[in-house]
Amino acid sequence: MKREDLAALTAACAKCGTCRTVCTLYPERKAEIAVARGKVVLVEAAASGLDGDAEALQEALSDCLLCGRCERACPNQVSVEEIVMKGRGALAEELGIPAWKQVVFGKVMPSAGGKTAARAAAAASQKLFLRKVPTESGLHYRFPSAFGLSGRTVPALPGESFLGSLPRGEAVRGEVILFVGCVFDHVFPRVGRAAYETLRLSGKGISVFRDAPCCGLPALVAGDRPSALRCVEENVRRLSDASPERIVFPCGSCLVMFRRNMLSLLPKEHPLYGDAVRVADRCEDYASFLLETGVLSRLPDLPKSERPGRIGYHDPCHLSGTLGKGGEGREVLRRAVGDSFGEMKGADLCCGYGGTFNIRDYPTSAKIGQNKVSVAAEGGTAVIATACSGCIFQMRDMAARTDPSLRVVHIAELVSQAFSTR
Amino acid sequence: MDKQALSALREVFGERLDTSREQCICYSYDATGKMFLPDAVAFPTSADEVRRTILLANERLFPVIPRGAGSGFSGGSVPVQGGLVLSMERMDRILSIDEENLVAVVEPGVVTETLKEEARKRGLFYPPDPASLKFCTIGGNIAECSGGMCAVKYGVTRDYVLGLEAVLGTGELVRTGVVTVKGVVGYDLTRMLVGSEGTLGIVTKAVLKLIPHPETIATILAFFRSNHDGSNAVVGIIGERITPCALELMDRTAIDCVRENAGLPVPAEAGCALLIEVDGPKESVSAEAERVDQACRRYGAIEVGRAADAEGRERLWTLRRSISPALRQVNPVKINEDIVVPRSRLPEMLAFLADLAYRQNIKIVNFGHAGDGNVHVNVMISGTDEDERRRADEAVAEVFRKTVALGGTISGEHGIGIAKAPFLEMEVGPLGVSVMKRLKTCFDPNGILNPGKIFVEEGMARR
């Protein structure tokens, strides 16, 4: 894996060890290989030609939640996420990408039709194989123990996706585009719907990005850079043509892909690079858009809550950490639910999802996630609101496992509720 | 390491022994950036596992290198001759905090800050505060006798270790010292082990002294025109019979790194800054802060800032904290020395360093714990220029010679490790080295423990 670009990135690490203090995974692993310094040195060694076993290295690099805490704590601003993702990419090239991932990332994710077909197949298999469990956050299915994922729950796929439910012709044109994201379209269409309806209260013309490809982040973190690039190219091309004033994201992970990762994935000489910079510049999180357009100031003042502080805000790593948008989500909640919102205990703890990490090591992912929701519940939080599809997916599973009375929602759902009840 | 050794270790550690190349790479370095691959890494969880490991090492003659968090600046935990790295990070329990006798008993893998916080919750104070306190471990602190900013008032790790449980190089488990404030029963084996860099024994448990937590703290930041004024002020403050709990000096080279983005305005003519803290009961702290303020002005301070609340203090600290991260912009590779001179010789030392940088045409950034005469001399080089590297090495040797000539010591808190081994004799003399080597033989006759450190010679164990 001789790679000069990687060698240049890793050279910035002074090996001080500061990353050990903030790593989400370190307390679980208690080994240097878990933390950024270990991974950076491994990539450094491999990039300079001191390869060990490529599969073992891939394994080490995969053992990371990409929560970005190390990068933010680093005194030398080492681009740890970039190093890990590029490392995974280089190794995927070397080792090949497993066939199932090739199909998912290469064929399904970049196309809307592919996603719809995959959704139908998944919904059918859910009914066949999984057992139903009722939770406050909606119906979940539980994997039987035979799957080796004992106890894991997944949300029941609703009959219709959000985009599928929009009448033809509705919201095709407007100065603001809603990028709803795969999960809020197919898995939690209520979130997509709530985001759409509350954005419309801004009085701006809101159009929905129909037939949208995936943002590309799942493929990117899995090391499938070619597929991620296809998603990005398709998105940039179409969003550039539409030339909106703003592109609004209810999901922090999709947003970080557009605002940050997209630009490191596209080489500067790529014909779409200039377009990508312009697109990235117009991308914004849901909460910021609501605050800017003053939607929430139309809500009347709320009476004192019977249970102040029962609703908390969870900081998605990408949105609050990488993009520094932790304040906006909280402000939206403060206005939407009044003093029912209170700072949640452990708000900035990672949910443990980490994209593909959740699939490769579910027990550890679940341990981190269960700790997250238990700390919140012990602190008196009954509803966890947030703004990232991965976090919601994970925390609903964790709530179903530990405390089914705990609700996990998107802030848009609470905003929508505030407008419908007042 | 041979197959028998590894399979015997496997019986001790099971899955907690790892020989994969990836794991070995992750235990091959410390904060010096020097890399030497071990043959294996093990993660002990009990003193007995450590004891069995050392017995095996004596049988099969392989090096054993204890390691805390790998945050050292002297190469103390780097396996220069291969062998087995014993990573103590999983022995990380605080076993007890005795509030009546003010004693904590901890395992070596406890992170320093964790202990400080647990003590704080009980109104108690474990003072040692190395810059890496958020991730370095008590075991590593003991091995290197770490210091920190508050050493000027509270001393260093050594001053808080009452007793130890350690496995010697022979594989014997020894308990040293006391659990009381006093104790003079026989030789002081505890002090012998503190700062021995893992070459005499591996600490498996430590009995540490705690003190009442100071009631409050105040921070003063003073800018001076020159190193001369600033370092004279250091001497002057101490002359006032005040003992600050931090007295940090940043010289012109350090201020220049952050002049534009120090997080607070830096006077244009500032060529030196002192960050001073005083702690204790409320009444005395505000009186002392006032006296420090006055002393600074007397020695020519051009601006003095003061804060007693957390927010204001944090603001004053941003200047000091922003220096280390900014060093990289001077040059990518840092050679970090930690010399100490008697406080009264600081002005002379700083003048020497400025002249040296000029003579050797090399970038040197100086800051550090001036209150105890400890200066972090950071020689910043590109890392790609051979001649620059040679000039840097020469400069470092000159710094050490000057330090010793001024009655100082070549390492205040980092230890000798591999980085300063060639200069050991310069400071302690041939007899000093010889006595140390004789002691080493008593504790570790087969040269199992951390070979290749402190002394220049090859270690005695073979791979």
The number of helical segments of chain B is 15
Strand content of chain A: 5-15%
Could you estimate the helical fraction of the residues of chain B in percent? 25-40%
Largest interface: A-B, 27 and 31 residues
How far the N terminus sits from the C terminus of chain A, by CA atoms, comes to 60 Å
Tell me the overall shape of chain A.
Answer: globular
Residue windows where pLDDT falls under 50 for at least 5 positions of chain B: 459-463
**Class computed from helices, strands and strand pairing of chain A:** alpha/beta
Oligomeric form: heterodimer
Report the top-level CATH class of the largest domain in chain B. Alpha Beta
The chain-level mean pLDDT of chain A equals 89
Question: How would you portray this structure in words?
Answer:
The complex is a heterodimer of chains A (422) and B (463). By secondary structure, chain A is an alpha/beta fold. Chain A folds into 3 domains: 4-95, Alpha-helical ferredoxin (Fumarate Reductase Iron-sulfur Protein, Chain B, domain 2, Orthogonal Bundle), CATH 1.10.1060.10; 103-290, no CATH class; 299-421, Rossmann fold, CATH 3.40.50. Chain A contains 22 helices and 10 strands. Chain A has helices at residues 4-10, 26-29, 36-47, 54-62, 69-73, 80-95, 99-108, 112-129, 162-165, 182-187, 189-200, 217-221, 225-242, 252-265, 273-282, 286-293, 317-322, 326-337, 356-360, 362-378, 389-402, 411-421; strands spanning 131-133, 140-142, 153-155, 176-178, 206-208, 246-249, 283-285, 311-313, 383-386, 407-410. The model of chain A has no long low-confidence stretch (mean pLDDT 89). Chain B has 463 residues and is of the alpha+beta class. Chain B folds into 4 domains: 3-89, Uridine Diphospho-n-acetylenolpyruvylglucosamine Reductase, domain 2 (2-Layer Sandwich), CATH 3.30.43.10; 90-212, 2-Layer Sandwich (Uridine Diphospho-n-acetylenolpyruvylglucosamine Reductase, domain 3); 216-324, Alpha-Beta Plaits, CATH 3.30.70; 331-443, Alpha-Beta Plaits. Chain B is 37% helix and 21% strand. Chain B contains 15 helices and 18 strands. Chain B has helices spanning 3-13, 21-26, 47-60, 112-121, 138-144, 151-154, 189-193, 227-239, 252-258, 282-298, 310-321, 323-330, 346-360, 386-405, 424-443, and strands at residues 17-18, 40-42, 64-67, 84-87, 94-98, 103-106, 124-125, 161-168, 173-177, 201-209, 211-212, 216-224, 246-251, 272-280, 303-307, 333-340, 363-368, 374-381. In chain B, the strands form 4 sheets. Chain B has a 7-stranded antiparallel β-sheet with strand order 15-12-14-13-17-18-16, sandwiched between helices. In chain B, helix 1 runs antiparallel to helix 3 (47-60), helix 8 (227-239) packs across helix 10 (282-298) and helix 13 runs antiparallel to helix 14. Chain B starts with a helix and ends in a 20-residue tail after the last helix. The model of chain B is unreliable at 459-463 (pLDDT under 50). Classes of the chains: A alpha/beta (422), B alpha+beta (463). At the A-B interface, helix 3 and helix 4 of A face helix 2 and helix 12 of B.
